[in-house]
């Protein structure tokens, strides 16, 4: 089974913020594959279903971003899944808005949610999908990541979320290498066709 975790913060005030792009991606995956992500288990909203012929668990931790690892650790322990079957989707301030980057493993970078996961599960050996939210920010980091998308960002971010959804589907069906080859692409710039 694949455990697909989208990072974000619970609560209405965070719903459509840059920091919740992981939640937004999980919601799109759930809608596309008819999976209800409404059960509260392991400090998360979860939903079991299938993508193609693979069993998946879609997860939205409800611990707030900085404690995401608590929920992810409980889920891995409960389902006795290998960390290689964990996929984490999250925002990344260090890559351009709308870019999608897939990595097999690695550090948490500057992301506190990922730092929490690495600390709690004692491993960095799992795939992750980073969705770029970087850009011309003229405000403190916390205000930026907890802020909503600008009118200009919305179409770019919607496209990035759909790319991330397709990347998860590819990963589950054909493996991480294929997903990296197909979906590690730079976003189109305004005016590109």
Task: Walk me through the topology.
Blueprint lengths: L1 E5 L14 H13 L5 E3 L2 E8 L2 E8 L6 H12 L6 E11 L3 E4 L8 H10 L6 E7 L6 H5 L7 H22 L1 H8 L10
Parallel strand pairs: 1-4, 1-5, 5-7
Antiparallel strand pairs: 2-3, 3-4, 6-7
Helix pairs in contact: 1-5, 2-3, 5-6
What can you see in these coordinates?
It is built from 6 helices and 7 strands; from the N terminus they run βαβββαββαβααα. It is an alpha/beta fold and 193 residues long. The chain has one domain: Rossmann fold. A 7-stranded mixed β-sheet has the order 2-3-4-1-5-7-6, sandwiched between helices. A hairpin with a 2-residue loop joins strand 3 and strand 4. Helix 1 crosses helix 5, helix 2 runs parallel beside helix 3 and helix 5 packs antiparallel against helix 6. The radius of gyration is 15 Å and the shape is globular. The mean pLDDT is 91.
Produce a short descriptive summary.
With 193 residues, the protein is an alpha/beta fold. Helices cover 36% and strands 24% of the residues.
Read across the widest sheet, the strand sequence of neighbours is 2-3-4-1-5-7-6
Task: Name the structural class.
Answer: alpha/beta
Beta content comes to 15-25%
Helix content estimate: 25-40%
């Amino acid at each position: 089974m694949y455990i697909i975790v989208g990072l974000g913060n619970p609560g209405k005030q965070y719903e459509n913020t840059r920091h919740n792009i992981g939640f937004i991606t999980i919601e799109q995956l759930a809608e596309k594959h008819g999976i209800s992500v409404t059960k509260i288990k392991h400090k998360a909203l979860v939903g079991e279903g299938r993508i193609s012929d693979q069993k998946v668990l879609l997860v939205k931790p409800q611990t707030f971003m900085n404690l995401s690892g608590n929920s992810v650790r409980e889920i891995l322990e409960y389902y006795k899944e290998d960390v290689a079957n964990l996929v984490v989707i999250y925002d990344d301030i260090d890559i351009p808005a709308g870019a999608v980057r897939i990595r097999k493993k690695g550090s948490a970078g500057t992301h506190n949610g990922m730092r929490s996961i690495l600390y709690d599960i004692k491993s960095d050996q799992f795939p992750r999908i980073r969705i770029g939210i970087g850009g011309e920010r003229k405000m403190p980091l916390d205000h930026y990541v907890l802020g909503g998308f600008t009118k200009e960002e919305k179409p770019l971010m919607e496209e990035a979320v759909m790319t991330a959804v397709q990347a998860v589907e590819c990963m589950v069906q054909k493996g991480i290498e294929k997903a990296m080859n197909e979906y590690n692409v730079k976003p189109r710039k305004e005016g590109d066709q």
